[in-house]
Amino acid sequence: MALHSTNPTPPDRRPPRWADRLLKRVLPADLLEELLGDLHEQFAEQAAELGEAKARRLYALEVLRFCRPYFLKRRIRHQQRTQSDYSQPYFLSPIMIRNYIKVASRNLAKNKVYSFINVFGLALGMACSLLIGLWVKDAFSYNRFLPDAEKIAFVRVNFVDPNTGEVPVTNWVTPGPLQEAIAQDVPEVAAVTKINYGPEYLIKVGDKAAKEKGHYATDDFFGVFDLPAVYGNPKAALKQTNQIVITRKVAETFFPNGLALGKTLQLNNDKFYVVGAVIENLPSNSSLQFDWLVNWKVQEENWMKTWGNNSFQTFVRLKPHVTLAQAEAAMKDIYPRRAGKNFDTGRPTLQAITDLHLYGEYENGKPAGGRIEYVRVFAIVALFILLIACINFMNLATARSATRAREVGVRKVVGALRTSLIGQFLSESLLTSLLAAALALVLVLSVLPTFNTLFNKQLTLDFNQSDFWLLLGGLVLITGFFSGSYPALFLSSLQPIKILKGRLQFGAGPALFRRMLVVFQFSMSIFLIVGMLAVGRQMNYLRTKHLGLDRENVLYWPIEGINEPTKFNALRQEILRQPSIASVTTAGSLPVNVQGSSGDLSWPGMDPNQSSSVWAMFVGSDFTRTMNIKLADGRDFRADSPADSSNYIINEATARMMAQSAPAMKDPVGKEVTFWMGKGRIVGVMKDFHLHSLHEPIKPLILCFNGLNVEYLLVKTRPGQTQQALADLTNISKKFTPDYPFNYHFLDEEYEKLYRSEQQVNTLVNYFGILAILISCLGLFGLAAFTAEQRTKEIGVRKVLGASVTNIVGLLSKDFLLLVLIALVLAVPLAWWALSQWLGTFAYHEELSWWLFGLAGLLAVLVAFLTVSYQSIKAALMNPVKSLRAE
């Protein structure tokens, strides 16, 4: 008779283990123990008589005899019968998952109010996260469509202070000779190109005409940017001075039959060009936006070949296996070696083109922010709102744990394991999250067109991309598990004996946890409210601050089609004859956002080591009068003074810079200075005005007189006569420039564009701040309703004893309001720090005031009180007889 042991064999003599494992997988459990014991006894006897090696072979043959289909089928039938009658199914088995979904659906349908609060709150949080996720993805996608984008870099120039080694100025525009110097001196670079600022010129083909933006570019442009061609060879076409490269959009506009290649078009009512190639339209996530390219040499002039004129953008493509740091190190000696002593402090620095959109601000020669700051802000806001929505779910689930406790007790008594209970509660949270995700998609699709309009984007939900569904699925899983984790762990840990005997005491732990979550919710909400108020206040400051010039009632009109001084003077006089016009002048750049040109100024007695970089602006006569810029000394340019063509007007910042090293320049009017145009005298000093956004301090500026070769006419209309002035100017435009449309803009609109990013932040913070409050109040509403429901008997007793409605409302509201006040105390320091950091990006800004935080706290308390008081008043007005009878 076999001994019932699975291992009767001595330790030094064992049958093959693989044979035992095989037998265990084939035989049913009711035969395994006895048969394994018999085989082990037989192996021990054979090993003693025949030797261990032969015994192992015989043992293996015996095991293989039992590997028959009969025994395998019997094992499967035995397992199925045992599982159905006795054992627990695996908590993630199909049977259990179906059960989880069924029970979860019933619970959601049974508790409609709480389910609505959870689903709607999570949907709002997910919708915000999806919208901001689309925006963030778009921001990071800029320029990544370019082949080998990681090898393309934008060239900036750091100007180093030789005394301190610091970098006070980083230029994004570069001098013309730098491109040639890099091509000749830096073997690490495969290709280098430069482009001009990008004018909008009129393109004409027969009777068709339209203005399109383009660049004059050096012939290695397509060596740097490998843009896809539709027709022709762009590289070869750009090397020809009589050919033009256009985009598909321009080709379809002027040559709808698709035969653009080899056709002729006229650019800027001047030269004719043959279409040498057509390239694909540039996507919206490209930092470069243009529709035509012409060879650089067509417009090259002598002043473009000087190192002191920074007016162009330079890009490089690195050779394989060359890093940005290696190429930058190879460029560091270009300025000292080639530019001469007046410009030898320049040091080229490279910025990856994939970072160009996000990192536009530089400090001490290194990237120091830009749009990336707003990307981070938006991402944090999205996370805040999603957390607030998740907290609602956790709070309501733990608050309602008493109503689910009996269910947990019964399930445990009938044999439910803790893992299956956790699966049940997690399935409810995942189902809630899934329903919320479906609703969030509907919300996103509904508001996406408005979102695109507000932020000038073309964002879409691409349902065909697997990445989108992975992201959405990840969001559902993370939200579901995060929201349901604590309730699932807490409820599944309850003891069935105490539950069913009615002796269950939850203690202070869950209640304290709920209070902490409410405090966290409202801390984030108050943070966003303070942000709404502070950002709105700063935006109002930006709109109303006096800039040192008058931007009201000033429109600018690009000068096109007028190349003769006589015709230009006739145009100017015709404009001035109109009663609706107060004054007119010209400018090479818009005075609220001076761009394009800078250079080094020199004067008698200057310190050779002193930084002397100034912004330059070409203007015509009456510039300061038209813009209402006050003169501190001297006079404006005069149209009847030929000598003014070599004279200058400077601002006070330039005067202070010169006086640092040359005391004689404290009174600069009449003094001779040298700029990149040549020597000239200073005829006026104007009061400082803001020539860039308020992010930057006022920079040194020099005005150069040139009434014709400039970009814009600046026309100041008389107050209240703007519409008449537009009608007058339209007629004048048709008379003097009939081939060009009257394409005007207002200067205050251009100023608003400087703060588009800030305005977008303001809009987002406002919308999402309101959403955060709404979601928090939904959760508070649910908690207040549950609290009132749980205290029905207490409220009835208090009313019977004479408590007023006011007493009961105060009783039910005070705990919640106390939590909001604690949240205010926690949110204020964080909001103060974050807003101080943001306001610090402006050289000029409003100061943070205590009333901002007081008002935010008052709003939060008021909204919370109104939310809670509804349920409190409803409970207080109940008939106490009914409530006590129900109890």
Automatic annotation (TrEMBL):
Recorded topology in the membrane: Multi-pass membrane protein
GO cellular component, one term: plasma membrane
Domain of life: Bacteria
Annotated ABC3 transporter permease C-terminal domain residues: 380-495, 768-880
Chain ranges passing through the membrane: 113-136, 374-396, 430-448, 468-491, 512-535, 764-788, 816-836, 848-868
Record keywords, A-Z: ATP-binding, Cell membrane, Membrane, Nucleotide-binding, Transmembrane, Transmembrane helix
Molecular functions per Gene Ontology: ATP binding; transmembrane transporter activity
All residue ranges annotated as the MacB-like periplasmic core domain in the record: 115-333, 525-728
Pfam families: FtsX, MacB_PCD
InterPro entries: ABC3_permease_C, MacB_PCD, Macrolide_Exporter_MacB, Permease_put_prefix
Cell compartment(s), UniProt: Cell membrane
Annotated protein name in UniProt: Macrolide export ATP-binding/permease protein macB 2
Organism listed in the record: Fibrisoma limi BUZ 3
